[in-house]
Amino acid sequence: MPLTRAEISAIAHSDHPVACPLFESTVEMLVEKLALTAGARVLDIGCGPGVWLDFVTRGRRVDATGVDLAAPSLQMAQARLEGRGAALIEQDARSFLDAGPPAFDAILCNGSSHALGGFQPMLAAIRNSLMSGGKALVSDGFWTVPPTPEALAALDGTEDEFPDLAGLKHRAEAAGFAIEKCHVSTAEEWDDYEESWCGALERHADEQAMSDADRKTIRETAASHRAAYEDGYRNVLGFAALILRAV
């Protein structure tokens, strides 16, 4: 069978398991700034293979839960988090949040706002599921400059798909949060992420046994993605990770 989109994505992220343009040291810093106390209830929406929960549970005795719809990703998360007591649930994020009262001390949603209908609906949903004074660690894109036609074509997007950075922050504040920290991905973080994405695919095509058709698909995907970034949205699309406090 031909490789699926999910399989290609898993290969592409094998060298950069944080599926965002953030260094692992940045993720570690952001999780540290959540100041999680022993027993804190932490939810990761769209947890995927458990990379963010890995950082959350390193040396911390917290009650961690991850929710995702992809069973293969949850299986990887189970292996990554073995022995740490994390609950991993295969369920739609909206139905999971709607099922109970506010109960979490911290909620993460990084690269998964689509699971709740986009950045603004995601903020509203997690605000309603946080304890008073609880914190969120979320991230999303923003336009660093007005989007160029090349960037919009590369992303298959629209001009109103993202705000600028000030607009992104305003949406967080309008949803009932105070901003405690905003990290904007550096050019180095972006380049490292995108080059890792393409490089992992190219290495896989060279080193792994596969059909000629799959090898061709992987190489074309890598070439197309590199062109989209370098000739399209590089220095046009930004990325920000926010630590928010419910107020």
Structure description:
- It contains 10 helices and 7 strands.
- By secondary structure, the chain is an alpha/beta fold.
- The chain has a domain at 21-150 and 157-187 and 239-246: Rossmann fold, CATH 3.40.50.
- Strands 3-2-1-4-5-7-6 form a 7-stranded mixed β-sheet, sandwiched between helices.
- Helix 4 links the parallel strand 2 (63-68) and strand 3.
- Helix 7 (149-155) packs antiparallel against helix 10 (212-233) and helix 9 packs antiparallel against helix 10 (212-233).
- The longest helix has 22 residues, at 212-233.
- The chain is globular and about 55 Å long.
- It starts with a helix and ends with a strand.
Average of pLDDT: 95
The first-level CATH class name of the domain at 21-150 and 157-187 and 239-246: Alpha Beta
Q: How many separate helices? A: 10
In helices, the fraction of residues equals: 40-55%
CATH third-tier fold name of the domain at 21-150 and 157-187 and 239-246: Rossmann fold
Q: Within the largest sheet, what's the order of strands?
A: 3-2-1-4-5-7-6
Sheet having the most strands: 7 strands, mixed
Shape: globular
State the CATH architecture of the domain at 21-150 and 157-187 and 239-246: 3-Layer(aba) Sandwich
Cα gyration radius (Å) = 18 Å
Structural class: alpha/beta
Q: CATH homologous superfamily of the domain at 21-150 and 157-187 and 239-246, by name?
A: Vaccinia Virus protein VP39
Number of strands: 7
What distance separates the N and C termini? Answer: 50 Å
- Extract low-pLDDT stretches: none
Beta content comes to 15-25%
H/E element sequence:
HHEHEHEHEHEHHEHHE
